Amino acid sequence: MSELMLECDGASLHVESEGDGPPVLVPSGAGTAFYRNSLSSALKERLQLVHVEMRGTGGSAGNLNGASFALFADDLERVRDALGFGKVFVLGHSNHGCIALEYGLRHGEHAAGIIAVGSVPDFREAFALGQSRFEAEASPERRGALEKGMAEFAAIPFGNEPNDELMLRRYISMTPLGWLDPAFDQRYLWGERAPRGMATYLGWMAGFAPTWNVAPRLNEIPAPVLAISGRYDYLCPVHLWEDAIKDGATIDLAVMEQSAHNPQVEERERFDETVLAFVDRYGSRL
């Protein structure tokens, strides 16, 4: 793995690269460990994954003043240009899928393809829709696991923990919303410590995301778009992609029927096959 710092419009961006093959930019606002650990070695044998930490998070400097998914997409474009890539694929998971879509809208001439994983094209109703689905569908076991996790988080003596660690533990307490197995232990994916800036970034995201919607503009993206969603994702519900397609969006949607928010782990083999088939199909655009 190689790493470097790139100066980008008032911020210094930490970039890590692993694997070999067509370049794939992977944005992250909560450290690189989660994606380095959750994206498989099989992908890294075929793709060059370029992890870009958003300004003010992880090893990147800067702040989130005036931040938006569009700003982060512009940062990705500066990274692409600085590294000398022609066209790239962009793979964003969860809210980072919104950054990938913005990249397609703003810098589509340099995109070979956009891959949004466990994400949505319209965040305005995502949280409310996910909550209503959970209330309608969740088993007693899943409900109990969520209640237990939230109670354990509430019992933490907050004054004794750094904000980033608290945010990570809060996120983990919501495991039944984001994993098909409500008892899945995801802590190992995050590395030894909570990512620097995670609390600030997710706090910003929780306020900004409900204002964001590109569903009506999906067909303006000149590059092909692949959305990969878990059927049981209560954080970024697949229904929002299905609605966009009903409204005329011409994208590819792969629904992972045995996954929630993290199909790259929950259905690793099918996820890898889906991503690699997309890259193979559109690799000639590089």
Question: What labels would you give this structure?
Answer:
single chain, 286 residues, alpha/beta, Rossmann fold, 2 domains, eight-stranded mixed β-sheet, 41% helix, globular
Give a short synopsis of this structure:
This protein is α/β, with parallel strands linked by helices and 286 residues long. 41% of the residues lie in helices and 18% in strands. It is built from 12 helices and 8 strands.
Average pLDDT taken over every residue: 95
CATH-derived topology of the largest domain: Rossmann fold
The helix/strand class is: alpha/beta
What is the architecture of the largest domain at the second tier of CATH?
3-Layer(aba) Sandwich
Alpha carbon gap, first and last residue:
23 Å
Please count the beta strands (DSSP E, at least 2 residues each): 8
Shape: globular
Which blocks of ≥5 consecutive residues have pLDDT under 50? Answer: none
H/E series: EEEHHEHEHEHHHHHEHEHH
Largest sheet at a glance? Answer: 8 strands, mixed
Biggest β-sheet: strands ordered side by side in the sheet: 1-2-4-3-5-6-7-8
Name the CATH superfamily classification of the largest domain.
Alpha/Beta hydrolase fold, catalytic domain
Number of helices: 12
Q: How much is the radius of gyration in Å?
A: 18 Å
Total domain units:
2
CATH class of the largest domain: Alpha Beta
Measured by DSSP, the beta-strand proportion falls in 15-25%
Helix content: 40-55%
Structural commentary:
It is a single chain. The two termini are 23 Å apart. The chain has helices at 33-38, 41-46, 69-82, 96-107, 126-137, 140-154, 163-173, 175-178, 198-208, 239-246, 263-266, 268-282, and strands spanning 2-8, 11-19, 23-28, 48-53, 88-93, 111-117, 225-230, 252-256. It is of the alpha/beta class and 286 residues long. 46% of the residues are buried. The radius of gyration is 18 Å and the shape is globular. The chain has 2 domains: 2-125 and 205-285, Rossmann fold, CATH 3.40.50.1820; 134-195, no CATH class. Helix 10 links the parallel strand 7 (225-230) and strand 8 (252-256). Strands 1-2-4-3-5-6-7-8 form an 8-stranded mixed beta sheet, with helices on both faces. The longest helix has 15 residues, at 140-154. Helices cover 41% and strands 18% of the residues.
